[in-house]
Amino acid sequence: MAYEIEKTDDQWRAELTPDEFRVLRRAGTERAWTGEYTETKTTGVYRCRACKAELFRSDTKFDSHCGWPSFYAPLAEDRVEYIEDDSMGMTRVEVRCGTCGSHLGHVFEGEGYGTPTDQRYCINSISLTLEPDPQG
Asked: Which residue ranges does the record assign to the MsrB domain (predicted)?
């Protein structure tokens, strides 16, 4: 897929920390319960850490007790891309930023989350930045 923002690995490495590069550009995963947004309740917009595209709003964030920030829907469907992922001996759906292709996490469906979409977007904190709502 062609992305609105495309850079070489060297360009991404110059802009991201080694841990950010490993997760965002190499589809790594941060350890559960270590991310800065896992338990955050701040109102605002979550953006892609790599390209700053708006991805999720805090009003769709919920506590799924999984160790990573969880959302039940992206800001809009065109903000994310879905890729089949068979990497861990199971089939999952990887979620990437629709603007730059950076790895965000995975989405899980139909597991009784009690959310309007019955989905859990399990997203790495290191893939996001939170822009707090100035109105609180």
From this structure: 9-133
From residue 1, alpha-carbon distances to 4, 99, 101 in Å are: 10, 10, 8
How is the chain split into domains, by residue range?
9-132
- For the chain, report the end-to-end CA distance as a whole number of angstroms: 37
- Would residue 48 show up in a list of annotated catalytic residues for this protein? no
CATH architecture of the domain with residue range 9-132:
Beta Complex (2.170)
DSSP code string of 23-90: HHTT---PPTT-STTSS----EEEEETTT--EEEEGGGEE--SSSS-EESS-SSGGGEEEEEE-TTSS
Paired tokens of 17: 């920390």
Q: Which is the catalytic residue, given 48, 51, 100, 122?
A: 122
CA 15-16-22 angle, to 5 degrees, is 145
What values do phi and psi take at 107, rounded to 5?
A: -120, 140
Residue pair 18/28 in contact by the 8 Å Cβ criterion: no
- Reduced to 3 states (helix: H, G, I; strand: E, B; else coil), residue 20 is helix
CA–CA distance, 39 with 72 (Å, rounded to integer): 15
